[in-house]
């Protein structure tokens, strides 16, 4: 098994070195900087008073007027060079409708380059407290239940975010292949995360083999599916914004890169569970043949496949819920809806990930059964040798 993984590991390291994005800002980053006034900073500000006002829109031809309420708030800047200042900003109707009260903390932008005093504007709500509390609660729960292994998984998660933020995302904004960038980054994440969370063992290596097989299959199937279906990748507001920043980006490749990254968690879950099941079955009855061990392992795998397929489909459906609601409003046949560019992207993304997931199960099970029996045979030979040596003495 190591004869297979060592070259793959070396290829991953070489890929990281060769594809690591440099310090030169990409064309998209240079274009994005033009949309934000130079010197713009972000500051927390506490709401001191709220004054609602009517900002309704008049109705058009055959359309009723929209009754809207906006608000003007006075806030105290809490940090930066303007700390202690009281500034007035207007809030749009959707922000005021979400709820703004005295004492709330908002995030404001500060344009120091504006004529006259620095200009402040509403940017977003401050969400530090709920996010920090949930993060701490998540870490505590994982540590208490999973103990050292759970804490190791958190360290692995931090490494995964490091690779995504420092390698994958900047690399996708360059001229490099999005598929190759996402594959190399995903492989690097899996090598570290799996061994860190589950220990260096033949069982973990089996899961890694299955995961790498699944990722490769996602890339190959996705490449064929995206090209055959002629997916442009320009189906959301975000991708159209990216198009404005850099029209030369490979948006079809970004679709595929998203499928690869999305498959990381599910493939990891399925392969490590399947490898553990095979090893546990072998420990319970080490006299089982490879064929019987594979058969029993697949019995577990089929149950896992049945439940995980639902997980993938409903996860994508939940992420695409606003899109589904729009289709519900349009008077279009479902045959047209399902083959539309926006919907086809989600369908292909789901099916490619599901196919790779399903096929990764028998591959992981077969590898696990083979190496479990091989490890058991080696252990048995070593035990026989020790017993022979003791009798000889």
UniProtKB/TrEMBL annotation:
It holds the Pfam family YibE_F. Keywords: Membrane, Transmembrane, Transmembrane helix. InterPro entries: YibE_F. Signal peptide: none annotated. The keyword RNA-binding does not apply. It comes from the Bacteria. Coiled coil: none annotated. The chain crosses the membrane at residues 129-146, 153-173, 179-197, 209-229, 249-267, 305-327, 347-372. PANTHER family: MEMBRANE PROTEIN, MEMBRANE PROTEIN-RELATED. This is Uncharacterized membrane protein.
